[in-house]
Every structure is written in C-alpha cells, then in structure tokens.
Design goal:
886 residues; Calcium-transporting ATPase, cytoplasmic transduction domain A; Rossmann fold; 5 domains; 10-stranded mixed beta sheet; 28 helices; 29 strands; extended
Length: 886
C-alpha cells in the first residue's frame, strides 16, 4: 500500500531534458579554451530555473507521499496473532493471509478478517463506510454486501467494544483500505477546460506549422512521411549521402575498356585508342556484359529499334547492355544462352556470377569489383593466349584500375571459365551453399569504365549546406579513387588528403600531421581495424569520404557520428542503405531509383531524386538562420535578456491577473463553449440560425471588420481574433516601438546605417576590427560591444514598457486594473532599470548596457499609440451588432 517517492533527485532528472533543450537552443557549450562568461551566467540561470521547477515537482510528490502516510496511520504498528497455539505480538506488516488475529476494545484492526469468535464486539467503520455509530459484529453474515456483513471486520477500522478472533483474508493493497488508497493515488483529476484548451492549442499549432512546412517542402519535391521529420530536417548537422543516384545522375555509360593489356575508348574523346570491333577478345567481353546480367529488355517494345527499347533493371547493368548492343543483339544473345545458375550481386561479396550453356558446354561468367574478381582469377586473356596471373600482371591491372578511377569512372571487372564437362555435364544441378563452382580458376577478360556524371546543381547545394553549417559526408561502395574524383568534381572535397600532403611535403604518410591535410578518404576494409582514437581523428575532419563500405559499416559510421553529438541525416536508395536509414535521425530515400525497402525505412523521399531538393527542404526549416546570414545586423536582444523578460519582468504583471475581480457583466455572458472544434484558430460560433451566404463584397467587408467586432456567444482560449491582435495589431505596434529604441541607440552612438547590413559577421564581437563612426571617432572592439549591449538593453526596455501598456489596455476593457497590476508593473520597471543601469549587472552578467533616456521615448510613444488604437477598436466593437455576422 506504499509507493516510492523519488525525491529531489528524480524531480531534477525529469527536468534535465528541458534544460538540455534550452541549452542547445541558446548554444550553451563549455569550451575551456575559449571561456565565455555570458554562457556561464546563462548556464547558472538555467540551473536555477531547473532547480525551482524540480522543487515544485518534489513538493507535489511530497504531498502525494503525505496522503499515503495518512492512510498508513490507520494501520496499527503491531498486532496480536495466535501462532504455535500461543498469542504473539508481531509487527502489523508481518501479518499474512491465514493468520488468526485477536482484537479487543481500543485496537486498530490491521487486516480484513472473517470472525469466528466474538464477545460483545462492536467496531467503528467510519473510516470505511462513513457511519459514525459503532456497528455490532456477530458470526452470522447478516447482509450480502461485504461492507455491511456482520461477520467481517476491515483494516483501518477501530474496535469500539468487546473482543473477538478472526481469520485474516486480505492484507495490504488487497484489503478494502488498500484498494481505496490505490484509487486515491491512481485516479487522476479531470483536466480543466483551460488546461484542455492549452494542450489542444499547443498540439494543433505544432501540427499546423509542421503541416504547412511539409506542404512547402512537397513543392520542392520533398515528400515527408512523418511530420516529425520536418523539424528534424531543419536540425541536422551532418548529412551522409550515397554517391550513385544521389550525387550523380545514375545514367551509366561505358566510356572505356582495358582489354589485352591496352586501353580503349568507346566513345568519349580522350587519349585512349578507339575500340575497334576486331579487337581480340572483345567478343568475350561483350558476351559477358550481355549474359552476366539480371536486367532485361522490355517485351512490350519488341518492335522498336534496339537502341530505343527500354531496359528494366539496375542502372549499371543498363549501361553494360547498351554497350553490348553496339556489337551484338543482346536480347537474342540472352535468349540463346539462358542462365542455368546464378549467384546475385551482394554488397558483401561485391560480385555477380552466372552459368550458361554455350556450344554444348557450361560457361561461368563473373563481374564485379575489380579487386574481388582479380582474386578469383588464375590467368588473364592476352590476345590468343592465357597468361598466368603474376606480379607483373597484378601491377598492370592496378595501373589500369587507377587510370580509370582517378577520372571518376566506375570500374567493373569481367572474367569467365569453362567448366569441365565430366564434372558439370548437361543437366547438372548447381549448388550455392556450398558453391560447387571453382572460385579461383577464372580467366580475367578485362575492365570496363563507366561514366556516371554528377547531377546538375549538386555543387551549389553542397556549398549552400556548408554555409548553413551542415557537413556533407560521402558514403559509397565505389573505389576510393572514383569516390574522391567525384567528390572533387562536386566540391565535397577541396583540400588535400593525407596522400596529397605526403607527396607535397615529401615525407611518409605516417609523419604527416593532422593539421597538414584537410580531407580524408577511407577504404571500408580499414574501418574494422580502426581504434577509437583513429575514429576520432577521421570524424574530426570537415571533408570525409568513405568508400567500399558495407551495410554494416554504413551503420557504424552513422552511429559514430551520432555519438559525437551530430544530428545525422542519411540519404540512399539501395537495400544496403536501409539499416543506416533506420538508424539515422532522418532517413532520406530517392523515389525513382530507390528500392521499396529503402523507401519504407526512410522518413523522407525525394520525388525527383535530386540531392538539391534536400537543401531546398532544409532551407524551409532554417529560413530564420538564412535571413540572419543575409542581413546580419547586430542582434537586437540576446538570450539572457530574453530570459529576463520571460522569467523576471513579466512575472509580476502575470501574477496580477490572479487578483483580478470579476467583470461587471460576467453573469450576463454565456459560459464558454466546450472545446470541440478541430483547431483553436478556427472558431465556429453557433448562433442557432442558419445564416444566408453573403455576396463576395459583403463577405470581404465582414472579414475586414471582424477584428473590431465583439461576440460573446462563444469563446475559446485562443482564436483568430486573438492571433490577429497579437501579430497583426498590438504586436506590430510594440515591435515598432522596440526597434525604434534599438535604432535610436545606434544613432546616439553615431553608428553609420549604411554598414549595418552584414556587419554582424565582422564587427560587434571580441577581436573585431576598428569601426569608424559618423562623428569621425574610432570604435574598437570593446566600444563596439558596449554599443551593441546598449542597443540590446534598449530593445529589452522597449519590450517591458510596451507590455505594461498592453497590460493596462487588456485589463481596462471592462473595469479598472486592480492594485496588484500597478505593483506588478512597478516591480517590472524597477527590475528592468536595475538590469539596464546597475554597473556589473548590465554589461558583465547580462551582456547589456546603459540606455540613453531619449531611446525610451520610442516605446512610450508606441504604448500611447496602442492605447489610442485600442480605444478606437473598442468603440467600433461596441457598434459590431450593426454589422452582419460572419
């Protein structure tokens, strides 16, 4: 019947998340190398706020514990039971079901019992039933209602007279008293109408804003599957993206080959020799491209020319088939030599194997990553000869591989082997696990180089992301040299890698320091060998490319970045990207080229498969940041002064509303309607009369006049009228007054207006260059910080003053404000003056400064204008009954 109360520690834990969120919002980070006192003070304020909230929560929990203690006081500390044929006094908590309990006058009964022996026994059941008169107990049941049964006594009741013996039938939480206690603790009080409206408003506003953002993003070809992804997109600090199909066009074209130890061009102008159909072994290369393939030509377009027919399948295989069609009829070749066995490509093996029946024998073809295929070969086809694979051939192979890779080409190797007829006769059933095909006796045919050009706009998109503070990382399955080449073409890498630095500095890579290179290109095979220190060194770089990665490695990369504090977005289109898409804070999939698995795993889909669409989506979420980057004027108010407004200056005026007397016509106004509409910003006043539909002229006039109309037939916490007052009427007047005070201070200190735009990037901070003012004086960095602090304090004072006028206007609609309004307002002014004019507190702690009194005339003038506007508005609202209802 007891419940643990966590105390202060658990209460603080409950508020830790909110404190961390606010700290992140105001960029509260500890940097021992660059101490910032304002961050320290902000941290102290957040700790104080969290402590106060934790104390309030603890007090509420303490009250809950007090209720439990009050129930526990009804249970006696000791009881008398019969055990081993003798009476024993034991702690009441030790009583168990089946004990024989002895009770007498004056005892508190510790458990529910059925009586089997009584002597003139009466009990006081007032704590259970509320009856003040003592109830007589007997051995007969008396009533079928347990609470009224004469042969039952209950825990927490008192023996008023006599004595008796009973058998314990329920204890602790199972007793009647315990069940009442559980109901008291478990039953939650219903929320008030105000609480419901606040909760609904917060939810609806959040959903509405996210939905609007999602619709805007859809216009940028970004489909949002989950509204939470809208906010996440604006928060990501790192985007890990695949190369093929995301950064590149995924339009594969074979542009070169390495055959018979020589380079050949297949169309792109370059130094390589054009590929002639008579080149030896070309037929084998073409046959391998056509047969070792899962892609097929569309059957519905059989009457079209071969070059115009659609190929269904992977983009890489489409490029290989297009290449093969220059020399053979690929569909006929596939029909003539159908597959009898296949091992599909996987991201783990990185090769694809097929077996075909050709000229009465089984021929096995394999294509895939060159380094993997080379390990499966014992020889290479050179003209009419098969040359053993040795170190010389290995060197030529690596040279050819790098020749294509450094040009950004995707490189595939092809090989074949003729299977022995005695072991693999016609009709042989091949097995995959274990595979009965020899995997180390293939004959290497050659390399094909495939060009996949970068998408248009990717370079600008990456530059925009970097401007917004988002790091772009490439994670691909291609060769490191290919990945690096593409990364340089699109601007993802611009600096030197450790290899480049080694060549420039002419020293081994082991001796190159971290500050001597800017980019890293990491091969997937090396990831499993990295220690934590190596991971930290790699992830600390700004330009990173991971190549030849497996799905498991992609997942680890995402996890490592998240552990370093990044909010990670991952884009991809393949099945192998799915684990990373799921793990990421935001998974982004392509639409046209993506697999169903990756689309399911992602929270966001790019409808046009364009990387630039991600940037457009981010721009929708970071528009405020972009505006600051564009205008970059000195901040009108800092985070500490905002907290002073929220937590100090407005506290007194807000509390004064609690002491406001009822309005004079309160009992003449109908009660507020029960909240049932779908959104608080769309109010529907039910008049009981079906209005006629007005014409467009009258409807337009009614919409213009609506903010000035008074309607007491129904009301919610926050409706369109209130929003229009806050953001379209009173809020505008207050903002003008605050900005005017801010600008007056800048004029007071002779700050040239023509340099304000963009000045925040260079001036108004420690180490800023000197600034020439309009009075021909020079303001150093300290002077600039003082001017900025004074202008921020002016804006802060503007908020306080304007809000006091708004407070008076709001309360004066029906009656004069109560005395606590003036006390709270006066307290707010005093606190604001202390914050602004007390030395040490104004500039050291809160980052502000003294304000020239002339600057305060602007918010005072705005407040007077607010009063005049409200009186006119109120006059028009009183005449609202003369206008048609909307």
């Amino acid at each position: 019947m007891t419940e643990e109360v966590g105390g202060v520690e658990s209460a603080v834990d409950e508020h830790r998340l909110s404190v961390e969120m606010v700290a992140e919002r105001y960029n509260v980070k500890v940097d021992p190398l660059n101490p910032n006192k304002s961050i320290l003070y902000l941290g102290i304020i957040l700790i104080v706020v969290a402590s106060v909230n934790a104390f309030i929560d603890f007090y509420q929990q303490y009250q809950t514990a007090a209720i439990l203690e009050s129930f526990m006081s009804l249970v006696p500390p000791e009881a008398t039971v019969i055990r081993a044929q003798a009476l024993h006094s034991i702690p009441a908590a030790s009583i168990v079901k089946g004990d024989v309990l002895y009770i007498k006058a004056g005892d508190k009964i510790p458990a529910d019992c059925r009586l089997f022996s009584v002597t003139d026994l009466k009990v006081d059941n007032s704590s259970i039933t509320g009856e003040s008169e003592a109830q007589e107990r007997s051995l007969s049941m008396g009533s079928e209602n347990p609470l009224e049964a004469s042969n039952l006594v209950f825990s927490g009741t008192t023996v008023a007279h006599g004595e008796g013996y009973g058998l314990v039938i329920r204890t602790g939480d199972q007793s009647i008293l315990g069940q009442i206690a559980k109901l008291t603790i478990g039953e939650k009080a219903p929320h008030s109408q105000l609480t419901k409206e606040i909760d609904l408003f917060v939810r609806k506003i959040a959903v509405t804003l996210l939905t609007i953002a999602a619709k805007k993003m859809a216009q940028q070809n970004v489909l949002v599957k989950n509204l939470h992804a809208v906010e996440t997109l604006g928060s990501i600090t790192l985007l890990a993206t695949d190369k093929t199909g995301t950064l590149t066009q995924n339009k594969m074209t074979v542009v070169g080959t390495w055959l018979n130890g020589a380079f050949f061009s297949t169309g792109e102008m370059g130094p390589d020799t054009p590929l002639d159909p008579k080149v030896p072994n070309l037929s084998q290369l073409v046959q391998a491209c056509a047969l070792c393939c899962k892609s097929k030509f569309s059957e519905s377009e059989a009457d079209k020319p071969l070059a115009e027919r659609t190929i269904l399948g992977d983009a890489t295989e489409v490029g290989l088939l297009r290449f093969a069609c220059h020399y053979v009829n690929a569909p006929e070749e596939q029909d003539a030599h159908r597959k009898v066995f296949e091992i599909p490509f996987s991201s783990l093996t990185k090769w694809h194997l097929t077996v075909h029946r050709i000229d009465g024998r089984h021929i096995s073809f394999v294509k895939g990553a060159p380094e993997r295929v080379a390990k499966m070969c014992k020889s290479i086809q050179m003209g009419d000869q098969q040359v053993p694979w040795d170190e010389e051939i290995e060197a030529k192979f690596n040279e050819a591989y790098e020749h294509f890779a450094i040009r950004g080409r995707r490189v595939l190797a092809l090989a074949l082997q003729e299977l022995a007829e005695d072991k693999f006769p016609e009709g042989h059933v091949f097995t995959r696990d274990p595979c009965d095909i020899p995997m180390d006796t293939f004959v290497f045919i050659g390399l094909v180089a495939i060009m996949d050009p970068p998408k248009h706009g990717v370079r600008k998109a990456i530059a925009a992301c970097r401007t917004a503070g988002i790091q772009i990382v490439m994670v691909t399955g291609d060769h490191p040299l290919t990945a690096e080449s593409i990364a340089r073409q699109i601007g993802l890498i611009s600096g030197d890698t450790i290899m480049d630095a080694s060549l420039k500095l002419q020293k081994p890579m082991e001796l190159v320091n971290e500050d001597e290179y800017d980019a890293v290109v990491v091969h997937g095979e090396k990831l499993e060998l990295l220690a934590d220190a190596d991971w930290d060194r790699i992830l600390s770089q700004k330009e990173i490319v991971f190549a030849r990665t497996s799905p498991k490695q992609k997942l680890e990369i995402v996890t490592r970045f998240q552990n370093k504090g990044h909010i990670v977005g991952v884009s991809g289109d393949g099945v192998n990207d799915s684990p990373a898409l799921k793990k990421a804070d935001l998974g982004i999939s392509m639409n046209k080229t993506a697999s169903d698995v990756s689309k399911e795993a992602a929270e966001m889909i790019l409808l046009d498969d364009n990387f630039a669409s991600i940037v457009h989506g981010i721009a929708e979420e970071v528009i405020a940041f972009v505006v600051f980057i564009i205008f970059a004027i000195p901040l009108p108010i800092n985070s500490l002064l905002i907290l002073m407004v929220d937590l100090v200056s407005e506290l007194g005026p807000a509390l004064s509303f609690a002491f406001e007397p009822p309005e004079g016509d309160l009992m003449l106004v109908p009660p507020r309607k029960v909240l049932c509409q779908p959104a608080p910003i769309a109010r529907d006043i039910e008049t009981g009369v079906a209005p006629s539909k007005p014409g467009w002229i009258r409807a337009s006039w009614n919409r213009i006049c609506k903010p000035f109309k008074r309607d007491d037939t129904g009301e919610v916490l926050l409706d369109s009228d209130m929003l229009f007052w806050c953001y379209g009427q009173g809020g505008i007047i207050e903002a003008i007054g605050c900005f005017a005070a801010y600008l007056i201070v800048l004029v007071w200190y002779s700050v040239p207006f023509d340099m304000l735009m963009g000045s925040a990037k260079t001036y108004w901070k420690l180490g800023a260059p000197s600034l020439r003012l309009t009075n021909n004086t020079i303001a150093n960095a300290d002077k600039q910080i003082a001017i900025s602090g004074s202008s921020q304090s002016a804006y802060f004072m503007g908020i306080v003053i304007c809000q006091l006028f708004n407070l008076w206007v709001t309360k004066h609609r029906y009656s004069y404000p109560n005395k606590f309004t003036y006390i709270g307002g006066g307290t707010a002014i005093v606190v604001a003056l202390m914050v602004v004019y007390i030395p040490g507190l104004n500039n050291v702690v809160l980052g502000g400064g003294p304000v020239p009194f002339v600057a305060l005339l602007a918010p005072v003038g705005a407040g007077i204008l607010l009063i005049i506007y409200e009186f006119i508005r109120r006059f028009l609202r009183r005449r609202g009954t003369l206008w048609a209802e909307v």
